[in-house]
Every structure is written in structure tokens, then in C-alpha cells.
Fold Serine/threonine-protein phosphatase 6 regulatory ankyrin repeat subunit B like.
Amino acid sequence: MATSSDRQQENVGDNIQQESSMVIKDEYWRYIPLVKAALAGDWDVARRFFDQDQSALTAPITPSLETALHIAVGTGKTLHFVKELVESMPVEALEARDHKDDTALHIAAWVGNTAAAVLLAEKHQPLLYMRGSRYRLPVHLAAVNGRKDTLSYLLRVTMDDPVAKPYSDESGIWLLMYVLTSGFYDIALNLLDRYPYLATLKIASGDCALGNIATKVSAFPSGSRLNLWERIIYSYVPVKLEKYSENQNRIDIENHINISQEIAQKDNSAPYFGANFSISGHRVSQKLQAIVWKFFELSVPRIKYIQEQKQTHHHALQLVKCLCEGIRSLNNSIAYESLATDPLFKAVKLG
């Protein structure tokens, strides 16, 4: 049975909690006009607010500890607002973190605001190497949330810093796993070209990159669900071949190649129709082929979809070869069994 003393203590506790809530509400209530301006990208209103309260430029203005910069970057509505804000703030203030420990660059990466990411990274490069929630860098957030354009930019400017080590050990393998989960197999190939050792690393659960892609049935020709005509088009539509040079510049070569011979062989009519349907590389240049196929893509959207699917399959197949080569290079039967056996069983099980 509760005594009067116990009830008194409970009441005191409730009063303290209510007073704390009121203090928090009072603290952020005055920033409501600034929050609205940041959400709308209205720099004129924001500037007038800053004229009256200079500290608001860098202060947390929401209970989530977001600054005006966090909010503006997260909306992605206007680069002008973000640019004016960044120019008005001291550089060190760009490192401000919200309640999740994320900076404005983390937010830009998460929502795919590439323009804001460029602005922030060029203004203050250390932002690229600041770890936020779950110890992730901005490049990790772009990958895990499927923001390909932002990810491509961040990969170009995030160097292999000796202190932050973005591409080493756990940080590196998690980045590769995020990229694979988002289906960016071309970017995964680029990562492996730069850092081949990622093929031999595992995350804490024991999964590796080969195990990850082994579960992606739709990433391979055998997982395609195409009708007769789509299989014929698939057999002859060209894809881009990516070659990676030592300085990581990609050279795209339009080439009429067939990476799905098994599909054509399963359908006896494919070669017959293909002889009339395809544009032979012996009669016209590859450049002309690319132009003609581009016309087909624009005229028939389904052709574009089929070409993109074939491109994905091509990247996935190249990726598996690359991962297997990386594992084989260890020359260690125990490591091979650890990294390759489980993915093999997964692939067989899923067909």
C-alpha cells in the first residue's frame, strides 16, 4: 500500500517532469518562425530572424537538436537558402550534430540532396570523415538509403583517409554491403577495383559480399521473367562495358554483346528473329548501333527497361567473378570454405 510520503514523492517527480517539458517547449517555441522559414526555403524571413538573434544561426532550434542548416538540407527545396546559410555561419558550426549525432552532410546524404552535399563538402572537407549515428559516414548513409547520385559524388571526394579509414575493415565492408543491398552493382565493381580486399571481409554476423549478392535472384539472367519477344530483344540489346583504369576513370564503350546466350538457346525462335531484328556489327558501326538503339529506347519504353535489366545482369555477373577471384587469391582453403561455401548453398537453394 502506498503511503502519503510515496504519493508526495510521485507528485514531486511528476511536477519536475512537467516543468522540464515546459522549459523545453519554451526553449524551442521562439524558433518556430525560423523552422518554418527553413522548411519553406524563405531566406528573407530567416535573415530577419538572424538579424534579431545572431545565435540562432548555429543553435539547435528543434527538440531533435536540429539546426536551421539540418532542416534546410533535409527539405532539398532550395539550394539558395543552404548557400546563404553556409556563408553566414562559422566553418566549425557546420559540424553541429542533431540528436542522432548526424551532421548536415549526413542529412544531405540520407535524403539524396547532392547539391547541398557538394556545397558542404567543398566548404569543409572534414565533414566527409565525421561519423554519425551507428558510426556511419555520410557515404554510408547515401549507400544504405539508395541515393545513387549522392553516393557517386561522395565516393569521388571521400579519400582513403589514414585516420577515418572509410574503406578499411568494418567501415569498408559495411559500405560494400550497403551498396549491394541497394542494387548498385556498377558502384560495387568500382569499389572492389579500388579496394580488392573487401571481397575477403565479413560483417559481424558472418555474412560477406558474395553471400549478399547470392541472395539477389533478380540480379541474374536466370531470375528474369520475360516473355518471348522480350527474350529476343534481351538477347540483342547492347549494354555498356565499364573498364576501370588505374586512376579510377571509367571508360564506357557501347558494344553489341550477348551476355545471355542461355536465354536465346532456350528459345529456338530467337536466332531466326534475331537475324532480322538485330543490327549487325558487321554492317554498321557501333556508334550507329548505339544511336539506333537509343531511338528504340525512346520510342518503346519497355526496351529501355529490358536494356537496364540486362545492364544490371552484366554488372552482377562481373561482380561475382570479381568476388570469387578475390577469395581465390587468398590461397587458403579454410578462408575459401568460410567465404564461398555458404553463398554457394544460398545460390543453389534460390535457383
About this structure: Residues 1-23, 244-284 have pLDDT under 50 and may be disordered. DSSP finds 18 helices and two strands in the chain. The radius of gyration is 27 Å. Residues 23-166 form a domain with the Serine Threonine Protein Phosphatase 5, Tetratricopeptide repeat fold (CATH 1.25.40.20).
